[in-house]
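Batch manifest, entry 17 of 40.
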Amino acid sequence: MIQVKAIHHRYGKQTTLQDISVDIQKHQITAIIGPNGAGKSTLLNVMAGLLEKQSGEIFIDNVNIESMKRDEISKVLAILKQTQNLDLRITVSDLISFGRYPYSKGNLTNEDHAHINAAISYLHLEPLKEKYIHELSGGERQRAYIAMILAQDTEYLFLDEPLNNLDIKHAVETMNIIKSLVEKLNKTVLIVLHDLNMVSSHADNVIALKNGRMVSHGDVKTVMTQKTLKDVYDYEFEIIKHEDKQICLYNT
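Output type: structure tokens
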């Protein structure tokens, strides 16, 4: 479990996160939602130890993150940011090997190669492994990046808007892959999403942010309500139930 206790964060004089306390449950998908500027990516990066908080505490499996070195964190938590360098002239296989850096420091061992090959196999990237990243479609590229953090062999996976720039088919495929990482490989996923129906269909828990504050958190049925979503987005939603999912209709 990851425990977040009374986190505050500022950019300069601007407060971006205010008194955030939440537990991230193991072997589940927790989605962070909220309008632009709500603090979603900031929270993800603070929890990963990539941004310095002004106050509060973060524990990963009862260990304070401040007592952990960067390599130690990278062996339990992998993060995929929303902006990737697509100009790199590297192959899919080379990209995935980056996930082993916390262990190998660039000198790959047989164990590293085993993790790389397992990630390639799991994401069905064998036909693409010698292709260059810039040659891939958006969906293929995202699979390669997910394979990279899978090769990192961590329990916790942080994903910042992984559906950006994907069409509907590839967005659904990507979410199904992420779901399978939880159900088949016992991963724990924290994911920033804008598509509320992807949240309803795939997430177990939701953290709803607005102006750096947590409006609500809990399981999907608790958070994905008409009242809560109006509070978060200042917008009227209609919620309908379909196959035990709470689907959002965006009324005009």
